[in-house]
Amino acid sequence: MNRIKELRLQKNISQSDLAENVRVTRQVISLYEKNLRQPSPKVWQALADYFGVSVPYLQGEILFVDLSEDEQRIFTDVLDVLITTTDNKAIHVLEALLNSFKECYFEENTRIAPEKK
C-alpha cells in the first residue's frame, strides 16, 4: 500500500490542495489513496518531490524513515542520480554498485571492506 494518504494527512492538506500541486484532480488523488489507480512515473515523482521522500518510500516499498539521517541523505543522492539517468544507464550504475558490494562482506550493523592483497 502506498503512503500518499499518510503523508498528506501528516502535512494537514486536503486532497484538492495536493491535486493542485501535482496537477491532477482531487478524484484521482482519492483513487491513488485507495489503491484503485496507480500514478504514472511522472506523477509518482511529482508526489515524492512534494512530500520530500523517495518514490520507493512513497510506494511503500522501502522504510526510508528507518534509515539514519546519513543513510537517508545517501539514499536520496543515489536515487536522484539514478532517476536523472537515461536509457539503461541506471541499470549499469546499479550493476556496478552491486558488483562493488560483492567484494565486501557485512557484519551486523557494520560494513567491512576486505583487505587488499
Question: What does this protein structure show overall?
Answer:
With 117 residues, the protein is mainly α. Helix content is 58%, strand content 5%. The protein has helices at 4-10, 15-22, 26-33, 41-51, 55-58, 69-84, 89-102, and strands at 105-107, 110-112. The protein is globular, with a radius of gyration of 18 Å. The N and C termini lie far apart (47 Å).
Termini distance?
Answer: 47 Å
Quote the beta fraction: 5-15%
User: Uncertain regions: pLDDT < 50 for 5+ in a row?
Assistant: 105-114
What is the overall silhouette? globular
Give the SSE order as H and E letters: HHHHHHHEE
Radius of gyration, in angstroms, nearest whole number:
18 Å
Main sheet makeup: 2 strands, antiparallel
Secondary structural class = mainly alpha
Q: Count the strands?
A: 2
Residue share in helix: 55-70%
